[in-house]
């Protein structure tokens, strides 16, 4: 019998309206809010400010999609000068939560260049102290509220780079998952973020680090997305469907918080850097192809994957193709500006990447 381990230290509260439970989580501490520009326009920031009251120390509300090295570097020193005694309250999608995590670790120099240098060398930075974080996702897909990982992009250097920061100190202390915060999401964001959750779920299944707990979480998440996303896109104001989407995102996040992601995500980084695809789209359009690579490698993985569409489905990868087409996503590389030759090379590079090596096909070939 194999030995396995599952660990997640994030205290999760899930439910409609749980945002109102934010003040007790502070436990009397001051808070700095990290969020996106539209939070002020929609009234969400005003709601957060009212909840925090006198505990609010400041707001950073200029986070942009896909955290950029230059933005983080430009804010980091001043952030630690002003908010070194604060809880970081991150309110937004994956980019906001990732940006907030970049501020959590403190280094001796007080300069983010020290963290960047360590990441560039594939090392963990030397942390002198760290801030706690409360994560409040406003999309249903990222799962970042229950993982320690944060993605950082560098598009200004001669050679574009993607870095991943993950430390014991970058796990959020707590997560408030309130489906009500996703009601105003536009169609494309709703679709792409939920497809990100589907990718997290499937990537946790065809993974060398999979275990019975991650399988159960991932399977529930994947089944929910394939059954309900088309209906949600047709009925975006449905409380029940928004709740299901947020729950799927959370369960998928809990699953891959222990397995990490795999091949589809490794491919997605190049698709985002070079072809500009949103993260959710970049990591989901390849899922049918990756499913076909995974199928037949390990009977135990096939048994879990088969349950996504049910025993009656004899060709689940094609069923996934049809599902993606139904929500307006092509699983063909060429439809995303990539030739067959480029796609083949991209997949080969991805298999050798850190996430690609989590994929069961890569493990079987090793």
Description:
The chain is α/β, with parallel strands linked by helices and 366 residues long. The protein folds into two domains: 11-179, 3-Layer(aba) Sandwich (Rossmann fold), CATH 3.40.50; 185-365, Up-down Bundle (Dehydroquinate synthase-like, alpha domain). The chain is 49% helix and 13% strand. It contains 16 helices and ten strands. The strands form three sheets. A six-stranded parallel β-sheet has the order 1-10-7-4-2-3, sandwiched between helices. A two-stranded antiparallel sheet has the order 5-6. It has a two-stranded antiparallel sheet with strand order 8-9. Helix 7 runs parallel beside helix 9. The chain is globular, with a radius of gyration of 20 Å. The model is unreliable at 362-366 (pLDDT under 50).
The span between the termini is 23 Å
Strand content: 5-15%
Stated plainly, the CATH topology of the largest domain is called Dehydroquinate synthase-like, alpha domain
The major sheet is characterized as: 6 strands, parallel
Helical run tally:
16
Instruction: Kindly report the name of the CATH homologous superfamily of the largest domain.
Output: Dehydroquinate synthase-like - alpha domain
User: What structural category arises from helix and sheet content?
Assistant: alpha/beta
Q: Mind telling me the CATH class of the largest domain?
A: Mainly Alpha
Number of strands: 10
Q: What order do the helices and strands follow?
A: EHEHHEHEHEHEEEEEHHHHHHHHHH
Which strands sit side by side, in order, in the main sheet? Answer: 1-10-7-4-2-3
Mean pLDDT: 95
Domain count: 2
Low-confidence stretches: 362-366
* Gyration radius over CA: 20 Å
């Amino acid at each position: 019998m194999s030995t396995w381990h599952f660990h997640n230290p994030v205290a999760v509260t899930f439910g409609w309206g749980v945002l109102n439970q934010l003040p007790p989580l502070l436990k009397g501490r001051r808070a700095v809010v990290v969020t996106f520009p539209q939070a002020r326009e929609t009234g969400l920031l005003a709601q957060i400010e009212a909840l925090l009251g006198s505990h609010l120390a400041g707001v950073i509300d200029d986070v942009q999609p896909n955290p950029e090295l230059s933005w983080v570097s430009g804010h980091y020193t001043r952030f630690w000068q002003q908010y070194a005694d604060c809880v970081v309250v991150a309110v937004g999608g994956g980019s906001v939560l990732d940006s907030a995590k970049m501020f959590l670790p403190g280094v001796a120099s007080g300069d983010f260049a020290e963290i960047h240098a360590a990441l560039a060398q594939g090392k963990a930075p030397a942390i002198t102290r760290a801030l706690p974080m409360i994560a409040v996702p406003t999309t249903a897909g990222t799962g970042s509220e229950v993982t320690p990982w944060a993605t950082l992009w560098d598009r200004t250097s001669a050679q574009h780079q993607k870095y991943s920061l993950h430390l014991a100190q970058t796990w959020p202390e707590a997560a408030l998952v309130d489906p009500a915060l996703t009601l105003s999401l536009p169609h494309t964001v709703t679709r792409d973020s939920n497809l990100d959750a589907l990718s997290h779920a499937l990537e946790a299944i065809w993974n060398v680090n999979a275990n019975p707990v991650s399988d159960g979480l991932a399977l529930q998440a994947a089944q929910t997305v394939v059954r309900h996303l088309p209906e949600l896109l047709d009925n975006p104001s449905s409380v029940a469907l928004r709740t299901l989407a947020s729950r799927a995102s959370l369960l998928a996040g809990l699953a891959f918080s222990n397995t990490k992601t795999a091949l589809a995500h490794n491919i997605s980084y190049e698709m985002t850097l070079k072809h500009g695809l949103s993260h959710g789209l970049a990591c989901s359009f390849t899922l049918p192809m990756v499913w076909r690579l995974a199928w037949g490698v390990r009977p135990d993985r096939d048994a879990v994957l088969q349950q996504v569409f049910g025993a009656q489905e004899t060709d689940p990868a094609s069923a996934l193709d049809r599902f993606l087409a139904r929500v307006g996503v092509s699983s063909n590389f060429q439809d995303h500006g990539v030739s067959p030759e480029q796609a083949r090379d991209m997949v080969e590079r991805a298999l050798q990447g850190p996430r690609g090596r989590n994929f069961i096909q890569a493990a079987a070939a090793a």
